[in-house]
């Protein structure tokens, strides 16, 4: 009954109070309840006939306490009772009291139910071997948990939690409440070298090849959203090796290296693989900055070229663009042109293309370091191990940026708010970019034009090539700096335009796929079924394509529901 009461209390607190207040109040109630049980059972003197009953009572009480402890904790460290990794505050003080009460209740269970007289005959002088008095200093788990939750902690004296268990603890901590804690979400997806992120990405790819009726309705839009969200999280985590960990297995499995070959540059973004489209989407903010600098030039050029009276000489156009376009070579073809001229399409194309490339070159510094290193790593991998893949101008990062710029210019949302003149300049720029992406020779007749474009392309490629010379220090996530790294990641992610949406989406993924994650990590269920669980309902795979069934959020009695583990739910 106590378990039912606590579950109902948690439901009511969540419904009527803000989450932080509800959690603090729940923590205090759970702590005081266990202290009350401790007082009662410590004073108990059961008869031999009642010994089995008190054994069952105490075991059920501790088993329920281990499940009720999840909503009270903000991190897996608190659940495991690692005192040296918990900051000193009122909440951690209550957490410590809960662990202490449970340890004493376990001691009561042993003392009240063990055959003390028989044990004394065997251990008259204590244990045969002395125990380390400093053992508790190195414990990774509070002593009572390995005895009660043996399915999670197989070795009592272990100093390091098993990898799959550490991931599962991070997931359970994250989904204990309805509203997400950004730090807990990031911790769940990055725990143990992004194990969970790799599982989800690979399962998303596996669903494409499964020949069942459910996976046939899986749209690429859901997979793209998953890939984009995970990539953005790991880019903010600032560790390029994690980006490799989650994408390289998918690329290898699907022979995705063809996406980086120059022969595929004529593909539209809608024809690309879902993971490539998710990767390309991470560059959207970069191109927003690039074309914020280009659009004023478009407006100026279109204005000058459409006014015959104002365009009496080429100097008019030169003067208007002098402050916006910085020449990167000594001999500028614009200065060598005659004063009287007819503004041909080649000249306008060159001016637009040159501005785009210069803006891209200038804004590369705004690209996250982890993303740049990841693109460079892909380039090196192809050149060393897959020589049959030939990128445009022998530079994979350059090819991705040029293709991304073309896709950005063709985006309906980008073009929708443009005037007709600006749209015409956008088409001219797109054609110019396509000409250097798809053809071996540039379309410019003037040789100096070609030289400038070549210099700009080489400069962009050099930005990535120079990263090889830098000594990139791998972030060592020791416990002294883990919290700082997590805090910085949260700050970076929430600063992104879609940062809040990404956190909410990834949290929902964990909620919907709790059973699948548990089975995929090899975590067995509870040893006893005498525990109140929240009723689970299987949501259809990718609810934006399939029919949805809404789950009523109310406190109901326990019921067993069989959950299929064949696929994951991706919203």
Would you write up a description of this structure?
It contains 25 helices and no strands. The two termini are 36 Å apart. With 571 residues, the protein is mainly α.
Structural class: mainly alpha
Based on CA atoms alone, the radius of gyration comes out at 31 Å
Helical content (DSSP H or I, runs of 4+): 55-70%
How many helical elements? Answer: 25
Order of helices and strands: HHHHHHHHHHHHHHHHHHHHHHHHH
Nearest-integer average pLDDT = 77
Sheet having the most strands: none
Number of beta-strand segments: 0
Distance between the termini: 36 Å
Low-pLDDT segments, ≥5 res: 130-138, 211-216, 310-314, 320-331, 336-341, 473-477, 527-566
Q: Name the shape in a single word.
A: elongated
β-strand amount = under 5%
Pfam families: DUF4495 (PF14906)
Short description:
This protein has 571 residues and is an all-alpha fold. Helices cover 61% and strands 0% of the residues. Residues 130-138, 211-216, 310-314, 320-331, 336-341, 473-477 and 527-566 have low confidence and may be disordered.
Keywords:
0% strand; 25 helices; mainly alpha; 571 residues
Give the helix/strand layout:
Elements: H1 2-16, H2 19-42, H3 51-68, H4 76-80, H5 90-113, H6 116-122, H7 135-138, H8 144-148, H9 163-174, H10 182-209, H11 220-237, H12 240-253, H13 274-281, H14 284-305, H15 314-321, H16 333-336, H17 345-363, H18 369-385, H19 396-409, H20 412-416, H21 420-438, H22 447-465, H23 479-495, H24 499-512, H25 514-520
């Amino acid at each position: 009954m106590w378990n039912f009461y606590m579950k109902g209390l948690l439901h009511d607190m969540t419904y009527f109070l803000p989450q932080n207040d509800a959690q603090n109040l729940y923590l205090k109630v759970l702590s005081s309840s266990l202290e009350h049980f401790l007082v009662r059972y410590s004073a108990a003197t059961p008869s031999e006939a009642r010994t089995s009953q008190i054994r069952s009572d105490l075991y059920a009480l501790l088993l329920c306490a281990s499940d009720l402890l999840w909503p009270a904790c903000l991190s897996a460290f608190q659940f495991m009772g690692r005192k040296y990794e918990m900051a000193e505050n009122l909440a951690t003080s209550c957490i410590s009291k809960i662990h202490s009460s449970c340890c004493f209740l376990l001691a009561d269970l042993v003392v009240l139910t063990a055959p003390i007289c028989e044990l004394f005959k065997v251990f008259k002088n204590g244990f045969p071997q002395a125990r380390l008095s400093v053992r508790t200093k190195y414990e990774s788990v509070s002593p009572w948990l390995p005895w009660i939750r043996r399915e999670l902690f197989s070795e009592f004296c272990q100093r390091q939690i098993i990898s799959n268990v550490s991931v599962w603890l991070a997931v359970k901590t994250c989904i204990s409440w309805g509203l997400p804690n950004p730090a807990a979400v990031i911790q769940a997806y990055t725990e143990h070298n992004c194990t969970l992120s790799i599982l989800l990405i690979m399962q998303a790819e596996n669903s494409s090849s499964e020949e069942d009726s459910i996976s046939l309705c899986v749209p690429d839009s859901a997979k793209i959203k998953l890939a984009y969200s995970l990539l953005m999280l790991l880019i903010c985590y600032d560790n390029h090796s994690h980006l490799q960990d989650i994408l390289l297995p998918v690329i290898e499995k699907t022979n995705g290296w063809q996406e980086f070959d120059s022969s595929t540059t004529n593909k539209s973004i809608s024809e690309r693989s879902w993971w490539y489209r998710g990767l390309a989407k991470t560059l959207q903010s970069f191109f927003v900055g690039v074309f914020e600098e280009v659009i004023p030039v478009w407006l100026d050029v279109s204005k000058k070229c459409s006014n015959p009276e104002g365009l009496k000489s080429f100097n008019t156009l030169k003067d208007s663009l002098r402050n916006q376009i910085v020449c990167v070579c000594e001999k500028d073809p614009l200065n060598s042109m005659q004063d009287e001229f007819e503004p041909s399409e080649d000249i306008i194309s060159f001016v637009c293309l040159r501005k785009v490339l210069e803006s891209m070159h200038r804004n590369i510094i705004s690209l996250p370091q982890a993303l740049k290193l990841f693109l460079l790593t892909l380039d090196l991998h192809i050149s060393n191990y897959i020589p049959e893949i030939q990128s445009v101008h022998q530079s994979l990062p350059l090819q991705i940026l040029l293709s991304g710029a073309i896709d950005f210019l063709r985006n309906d949302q980008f073009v929708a708010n443009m005037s007709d003149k600006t749209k015409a300049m956008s088409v001219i720029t797109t054609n110019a970019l396509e000409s250097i992406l798809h053809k071996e020779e540039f379309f410019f007749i003037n040789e100096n034009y070609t030289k400038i474009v070549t210099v700009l392309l080489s400069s962009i490629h050099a930005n990535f090539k120079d990263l090889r010379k830098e000594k990139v220090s791998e972030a060592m996530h020791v416990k002294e700096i883990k919290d700082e790294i997590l805090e910085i990641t949260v700050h970076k992610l929430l600063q992104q335009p879609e940062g809040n949406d990404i956190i909410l989406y990834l949290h929902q993924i964990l909620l919907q796929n709790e059973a699948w994650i548990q089975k995929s990590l090899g975590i067995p269920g509870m040893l006893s079924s005498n525990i109140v669980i929240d009723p689970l309902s299987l949501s259809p795979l990718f609810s934006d394509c399939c029919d949805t069934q809404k789950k009523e959020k109310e406190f109901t009695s326990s019921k067993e529901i069989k959950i299929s583990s064949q696929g994951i739910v991706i919203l």
